[in-house]
Design goal:
- By secondary structure, the chain is mainly β.
- The two termini are 33 Å apart.
- The relative contact order is 0.20.
- It is elongated and about 65 Å long.
- The longest helix is centred in the N-terminal third of the chain and has 23 residues.
- The chain has one domain: Porin, CATH 2.40.160.20.
- The chain is built from one helix and twelve strands, in the order H-E-E-E-E-E-E-E-E-E-E-E-E.
Length: 197
């Protein structure tokens, strides 16, 4: 249900925001590669006994980030940011983790050929772990899915290449999520192409 809602929100964003912004000429769209380093909690159950262990490890996840910013002033806008990251939930296991972030908030930028920017974003995060055998045998990893509040504070720099096309060599965000009754802190680093409409 969470994925369906997320996909519908993304479709609405893609259909309506460009149409509104095209009339104003103030839409900035970014898409590219993203690296995420979140803590992932899995439940490892003993196959021959009633023992279950909760194990948390930081994981290196690779994925994508897409954002759209509507600038109602040359230096101030509102951003919708979506990202998805994927990888192994435990080293040496076939169990995978997927984490998606859905964030919205204000962004300030310097309107120039070299354009630094900063934003504060709020929204939600969803993390799912697939079932699979744990490394070493005797234990298995249970499937789990959790959602929670998320925030991101960060910024980056855009470099103009040609009219309407920019490069974002780096964007760094500090992302905080609320899963399992606690707060998780993790970095997110992204890079890609920016289009100005």
């Amino acid at each position: 249900m969470f994925r369906l809602t997320s996909v519908l929100l993304l479709i609405v964003f893609l259909l309506f925001v460009p149409a509104i912004a095209a009339a104003q000429g103030n839409l900035v769209v970014f898409g590219g590669y993203s690296y995420f380093h979140p803590p992932v909690t899995v439940v490892e159950s003993c196959n021959l006994c009633a023992l279950a262990l909760q194990v948390t490890n930081k994981r290196n996840l690779n994925g994508w980030e897409f954002s759209g910013t509507y600038r109602f002033l040359p230096f101030l806008g509102v951003t919708a940011d979506f990202s998805g990251h994927y990888g192994a939930s435990v080293s040496g296991s076939s169990s995978n983790v997927h984490q998606q972030n859905y964030l919205f908030g204000p962004e300030v930028s310097l309107p120039a050929r070299v354009s630094p920017f900063a934003h504060v974003l709020f929204g939600s995060s969803h993390q799912s772990v697939s079932a699979g055998p744990a490394p070493g045998g005797g234990f298995s990893i249970g499937a789990e899915s959790t959602s929670g509040f998320a925030t991101a504070v960060g910024g980056g720099i855009d470099l103009k290449v040609i009219p309407h096309v920019w490069v974002r060599p780096i964007q760094i965000d500090y992302v905080a999520t609320r899963f399992h009754g606690g707060t998780q802190n993790q970095p997110r680093v992204s890079a890609g192409i920016v289009l100005h409409f």
